[in-house]
Design goal:
alpha/beta; seven-stranded mixed β-sheet; five-stranded parallel β-sheet; 15 helices; about 25% strand
C-alpha cells in the first residue's frame, strides 16, 4: 500500500491520521492511503491560498498558459500510471481511465489558450472623448468539491478555467478517489505553479466541512455531486456573498422513434447506460421507444448488453468494471429490488455476478428493466448504476412529454432520421444537453455543459461560458479630453 502526501502551500505534507483507499474490484486490500486533514489544516490551506492568489492574479496570462500547457504535457507523459490509479481506486476500465487522463490534459490546454486572450469588451460612451470598456477579473479563492465518479476530469473541468482566470483554489476530492486529484495537483506543481495557488484538502467531510465553508476568504464554491449535498451546500451559503455553482443529478432519457436506426440506437444506449458502470451524471437511465419498434429494439438492446464483459477495470477484455464502493453497489441493488416490487420486470441482469473471482468486488450486472411506468420510483429517481428502464410510447409528442416528466433536466437524446423531429426535440426537451443520433454522454471541453431545473445551478461549465462563474465584471470609463 502506497502512502501519499497532499499539496498545501507548495509543499507535500502529511498528518498523523490517514484515509485508506480501496480497489472496488477487490475490497480486501487497500491500495493507498492519504492524509486525513484537520480543521486547522484547512485554515492553513486558506492562508496559503490567500498568499498564492496575491501572486497568481498578477502573474502574466502568458505565464499562466505556459504552466498549464506544461502540466498537460506531464499528464500525457504519465498517462499509464495515472490511468492505472484511476482504474484501481474508482473501478473504471483501463480504456475509460486512459480517456479521462487525456481529457484532463485537454482541459488544461484549452484554457491555457483562453488565458492568452483578454477578457473584456469595448463599450460605446455617450460622453465625448471617453473610452469605456468592461474587463473580467478573478474572484479570489475558489473551493472545488469534486465527486468520485470522474475523479480526474472533474477537477480538471473546474480548475483549468479557475486558474486560467487568475484565481487560487482549494480542491476537496472525494474520499473514495483521492489519488487522481493528487496526480492532477502534482502535474501543476511540477509545471511550476506558484506555492499556494492550488491546495488539495484530503479528509473526511464531517471533520472539515465547516471550516471549508465558513472561512471568510472563500469567494466561490463549485460542486459536483448529489442533489442532497448540493442543496445543503447552497443553503449554507445562502446568507453570504459566496458564489455557488452546482452540477447535480440527472435522470437522462434516450428516445428511439420508429424511423430510427435501431442497431445504432441500441449500441448508443448501452454505451451511455453502462459505461463507467452507469456512474455518470449524463448516463442514459430511461429509454423511451415508439411502440411499433419496441420489441425489435428491446431484442437488440438485450443482445448488446449481453455482450458486455464485467470484471476488474485493469483486466484484459473487461468492458464494464465494478461500482465505486460496497455502499454504492448495495444502493443500486436495492433500487432494482424496489422497482421489481413495484411492478417492473427484469429483462437482463438485476443481480451480481456469480463468478467466484468477482466475489470480493462491488459488481452489479448490466440491468435492463421492462414494464416500467411513470409511477415507479425507478422512473424518477437517479440510480447512478448500470440500470436502464424501458417504456413504450405511441407518438413523438408522448415521447417528449415522457422526457420532460422529471424534476431533472441534464441530458436527453433522440434517435430519428426525420430532421424535423430532431429539431423539434431539440426545442422541446427541457434539458441543458441535447443529442441527436448519439449518446447522452461525452461532451467535449469547449462545449458548454450543465443542466436545467434540479440538475444544477444556472452557471455552465466548460467552454468560454465557464469563465462567467470564475470572474467578476468591472466597468472602466476613461476620459482623455481636456
Amino acid at each position: 500500500m502506497r502512502t501519499l502526501e497532499t499539496l498545501s502551500g507548495g509543499e507535500w505534507v502529511a498528518t498523523g491520521e490517514w484515509i485508506d483507499v480501496h480497489d472496488p474490484s477487490d475490497l480486501r486490500i487497500p491500495v493507498a492511503r492519504v492524509p486525513a486533514l484537520s480543521a486547522a489544516d484547512v485554515t492553513r490551506a486558506y492562508d496559503h491560498a490567500e498568499q498564492g492568489f496575491a501572486v497568481w492574479k498578477r502573474t502574466s496570462p502568458f505565464e499562466r498558459a505556459r504552466i498549464m500547457t506544461e502540466a498537460a504535457r506531464l499528464l500525457r507523459e504519465r498517462v499509464e500510471q495515472i490511468a492505472e490509479d484511476v482504474a484501481t481506486e474508482m473501478g473504471k476500465t483501463r480504456a475509460e481511465a486512459t480517456g479521462e487522463t487525456i481529457k484532463a490534459a485537454d482541459f488544461l490546454e484549452y484554457y491555457a489558450g483562453i488565458a492568452r486572450q483578454g477578457y473584456g469588451t469595448l463599450i460605446h460612451d455617450v460622453r465625448p472623448d471617453t473610452r469605456t470598456h468592461h474587463q473580467r477579473e478573478p474572484l479570489g479563492i475558489v473551493l472545488a468539491i469534486t465527486p468520485w465518479n470522474d475523479p480526474l476530469i472533474t477537477p480538471a473541468r473546474k480548475l483549468a478555467p479557475c486558474l486560467a482566470a487568475g484565481n487560487a483554489a482549494i480542491l476537496k476530492p472525494a474520499t473514495d478517489t483521492p489519488q487522481a486529484a493528487l496526480h492532477f495537483a502534482r502535474a501543476l506543481h511540477d509545471a511550476g505553479l506558484p506555492a499556494g495557488v492550488l491546495n488539495v484538502v484530503t479528509g473526511r467531510g464531517a471533520q472539515i466541512s465547516e471550516p471549508l465553508l465558513s472561512d471568510p476568504r472563500l469567494a466561490a464554491l463549485t460542486f459536483t455531486g448529489s442533489n442532497e449535498v448540493g442543496e445543503t451546500l447552497r443553503a449554507q451559503l445562502a446568507n453570504s456573498n459566496v458564489r455557488f455553482q452546482g452540477e447535480l443529478g440527472g435522470k437522462n432519457a434516450t428516445v428511439v422513434l420508429a424511423d430510427a436506426d435501431l442497431g445504432a440506437a441500441a449500441k448508443a444506449v448501452v454505451a451511455a447506460g453502462f459505461a463507467q458502470a452507469g456512474q455518470r451524471c449524463t448516463a442514459t437511465s430511461r429509454v423511451i421507444v415508439e411502440r411499433p419498434v419496441y420489441e425489435e429494439f428491446t431484442a437488440l438492446l438485450l443482445a448488446e448488453a449481453a455482450a458486455l464483459r464485467v470484471g476488474p477495470g485493469l483486466a484484459e477484455g473487461t468492458t464494464m468494471g465494478p461500482l465505486v464502493s460496497a455502499k454504492q453497489r448495495d444502493s443500486v441493488v436495492s433500487d432494482i429490488e424496489r422497482a421489481v416490487k413495484q411492478g417492473a420486470t427484469v429483462l437482463a441482469g438485476g443481480d451480481q455476478p456469480v463468478d467466484e473471482a468477482l466475489g470480493h468486488g462491488c459488481y452489479v450486472n448490466p440491468t435492463v428493466l421492462g414494464d416500467v411506468t411513470r409511477d415507479l420510483d425507478i422512473w424518477r429517481e437517479e440510480v447512478f448504476g448500470p440500470v436502464v428502464a424501458l417504456r413504450p410510447v405511441d407518438s413523438f409528442e408522448e415521447a417528449v412529454e415522457a422526457v420532460n416528466d422529471s424534476v431533472f433536466g441534464l441530458a436527453a437524446a433522440v434517435f430519428t432520421q426525420n430532421l424535423g423531429a430532431a429539431y423539434r426535440f431539440a426545442d422541446e426537451a427541457e434539458c441543458g444537453q441535447i443529442a441527436v443520433n448519439t449518446t447522452t454522454s461525452g461532451w467535449d471541453v469547449h462545449h458548454p455543459f450543465g443542466g436545467f431545473r434540479d440538475s444544477g445551478s444556472p452557471f455552465k461549465e466548460q467552454g468560454e461560458e465557464a469563465l462567467r462563474f470564475y470572474t467578476r465584471v468591472k466597468t472602466v470609463a476613461i476620459h482623455f479630453g481636456a
